[in-house]
Design goal:
Blueprint lengths: L2 E4 L7 H12 L4 E3 L6 E5 L3 H11 L8 E3 L3 H7 E2 L2 H10 L4 E7 L14 E5 L4 H10 L3 E5 L12 H8 L5 E4 L9 E4 L6 E4 L17
Helix pairs in contact: 1-5
Length: about 210
């Protein structure tokens, strides 16, 4: 049975968030709000938790998981970023954008793409997510909370609790989130490639919405 933490969306109660972080430290999976949709998250360094995360989400090791980072400097510790990429990252952080970048050795190989050694990274603009990351002291491994076999992410924490209470250990309820996942941009090629149009407007990064692969 998952624990349920009802927190204020702008000023979340530290006592409740500390309990959620303890669950993550203990290998648990949590559903948390972000500036796009709700996400499933776990501790980056817990192999069993990462495998469980993929199983609950219904994806294999070729599906890009995402590191939720506190800020751009933390993001740069986990990805190789050149000056051109950095300028584009500054435009999209914090915000509902996921950037696919080459992973550094700080990223466990088992959570990066098996053949490309790439990882999705983002800096969310949500007070609850940021407070959790601050308490944890490192990035969270995350994936959009889209149930297996479905195409739309969940944004109602009560529904998440009902549907996942036997498979995840915590739900952090900060009210409804947008129904869209993040906009995904691949920065590993010569030019930025818009992989998925989501919550973030590609035009803010100087990209055309017509370039989705």
């Amino acid at each position: 049975m998952s624990q349920y933490f009802e927190v204020h969306p702008q000023n979340p109660q530290p006592r409740l968030l500390k309990q959620a972080v303890q669950i993550l430290h203990s290998g648990g999976i949590a559903a948390i709000p972000t500036d796009s949709s709700y996400a499933l998250v776990c501790h980056l360094d817990d192999k069993a938790a990462a495998e469980n995360l993929r199983r609950i989400r219904g994806v294999d090791d070729k599906h890009h998981l995402t590191l939720l980072c506190r800020d751009l400097s933390e993001l740069a510790s986990y990805a190789r970023v050149d000056n051109k990429q950095y300028r584009l990252l500054k435009l999209g952080t914090p915000g509902p954008y996921t950037f696919i970048l080459e992973a550094t050795k700080e990223v466990p190989r088992r959570v990066s793409h098996p053949s490309r050694r790439t990882i999705g990274l983002r800096v969310p603009q949500h007070a609850v997510t940021q407070a959790l990351l601050e308490l944890l002291g490192q990035p969270l491994l995350a994936t959009t909370l889209i149930p297996p076999g479905e195409t739309e992410p969940l944004n109602d924490p009560q529904e998440i609790r009902e549907r996942f209470q036997k498979t995840i250990q915590a739900v952090v309820d900060a009210g409804a989130c947008p129904m869209q996942p993040t906009t995904v941009i691949d920065l590993t090629g010569d030019e930025p490639e818009l992989v998925r149009r989501g919550c973030g407007d590609p035009a803010l990064l100087g990209l055309s919405a017509d370039t989705v692969s």
